[in-house]
Amino acid sequence: MSHTVLITGGAGFIGAHLARQVLEQDDRVRILDNLHPQVHGVHGRPDYLPADAELVVGDVRDPDAVRKALVGVDRVVHLAARVGVGQSMYEISEYTSVNTVGTSVLLEALLDHPVERLVVASSMSVYGEGLCLGPSGTPVPAVERTRADLESRRWEPHDAAGRQLTSVATPETKPPALSSVYALSKYDQERLCLLFGATYQVPTVALRFFNAYGPFQALSNPYTGVLAIFAARLLNGRAPMVFEDGEQRRDFVSVHDVAHACLLALSAPDAPGAVINVGSGESSTVNAIAHRLARILGRDAITPQVTGRFRLGDIRHCFADLSLAEHLLGFRPAVSLDQGLTELAGWLEGQVAVDADKVEAATAELSARGLTG
Ligand code: UD1
Q1: What Å distances lie between residue 170 and 90, 127, 142, 183, 372, CA to CA?
Q2: How do beta strands 249-250 and 317-318 pair?
């Protein structure tokens, strides 16, 4: 039996790739998206959306728009969200409204329109600092870097006795440590959906995405991920600005793998009720990613600039333990970092009019509010 899948926030880069994968298995796709100018500029329907995906332009906080978008739908992937961590710290009501209230509006609409599967996009940001082990190899709870740590360039997480900790792959069992409005609102989204699913017997899966990258990521959005920011700078002949000492580690996962995990979560029989990491199974330092991207883009002559500056609330290391994803979804990442970066470079070559100044304006905004150092 074929399905009709509603993807909220589906005009973004993850939604676009998911839409294509859903269509390839002969299901129908409807996208509800407000085409926010920070992500989409003022261009209307993005060219990269598959022609067969129906686009309804509307806000996830608008009950009428959501109810209309649900007509004929039997599966929902909820991606709609504001996604800038730094920006969430001053656009507090906007982030809470879109992410938390928007999810609530969707769930109220689903009360009258039960679906057979709901998948919600959560984020690695809910972990705060990734899992750390102490000198004896046991997990250390609630590791946090303070402003004083960062100001004294003490980048690595340490325990109360000042001993440096070892960062390891983070499993879903690590307790949340919500250190930004964005993280809090993502946690709201996953909890609201799972609570709703358990109460009303709607099979619901929450996916915690790690650092997704790939074609169609909004280069002009200054609050987008580091890879898009670095790419935008390199294409403008400017050096990537690396925060801290650049040795912080992240899990960069190709958007194809993220979309595929969503697809699997739409039908995996044992996944409902679970929260599941979606990452690449690899980790890289920000320095390494800056150099690899420069090389792949043919901009080796541009040396990334290690600034020693920092963003308050940034975590040092976080990369995914994918055991549960493999067990419950059968998920195995298929795109290596080299393949993913090469693909990204190919797409980037066709991109023009990237505005790197916006990133500087965004950094200045954080700085003016005392959110950087
Ligand atoms: C955060 C969120 C994540 C969200 C993502 C995109 C956390 C822990 N995670 O990830 O859920 O999906 O933002 O909004 O809050 N960096 C530089 N130079 C730059 C920009 C970034 O060195 O110009 C560094 C940062 O200091 C950081 C790393 O690159 O160490 C990754 O930053 P970013 O891409 O913003 O994502 P996260 O903070 O990992």
Answers
A1: 28, 8, 13, 16, 26
A2: parallel
What's the rounded Cα separation, in Å, for the pair 22 and 3?
Answer: 9
Q: Digits of tens for pLDDT over the chain (373 positions)?
A: 899 999 999 999 999 999 999 999 999 999 999 999 888 887 789 999 999 999 999 999 999 999 999 999 999 999 999 998 889 999 999 999 999 999 999 999 999 999 999 999 999 999 999 999 999 999 998 899 999 999 999 999 999 888 999 999 999 999 999 989 999 999 999 999 999 999 999 999 999 999 999 999 987 777 778 998 898 888 888 999 999 999 999 999 999 999 999 999 999 999 999 999 999 999 999 999 999 999 999 999 999 999 999 988 899 999 999 999 999 999 999 999 999 999 998 998 877 545 555 667 777 777 777 777 8
Catalytic residue among 95, 127, 182, 187: 182
* Nearest residue by C-alpha to atom 26 in ligand 1: 243
Q: 138: CA distance to ligand 1 center in Å?
A: 27
Among 14, 129, 210, 314, name the best residue to mutate to test ligand 1's pocket (greatest count of ligand atoms within 8 A of Cβ).
314
Strand partners, 118: 76, 204
Residues with CB under 6 A from ligand 1: 83-85, 123-125, 180, 183, 211, 225-226, 229, 241-243, 248, 250, 286, 311, 314-315
Return the ligand 1 atom nearest residue 242 CA. 22
What's the whole-model pTM score? Answer: 0.95
Atom of ligand 1 nearest to the CA of 314: 38
| Dist. CA 32 → ligand 1 center (Å) | 26
Burial grade of 38 (CB within 10 A; 0-12, 13-18, 19 or more): middle
Q: Which amino acid is located at 32 in the chain?
A: L
Report the side by side order of strands in the sheet with 28-33.
Answer: 54-57, 28-33, 4-8, 75-78, 117-123, 204-209, 275-278
Atom of ligand 1 nearest to the CA of 127: 8
Q: How far apart are CA 292 and CA 116, in angstroms?
A: 43
200 catalytic per annotation = no
Domains and CATH numbers, the chain: 4-368 (3.40.50.720)
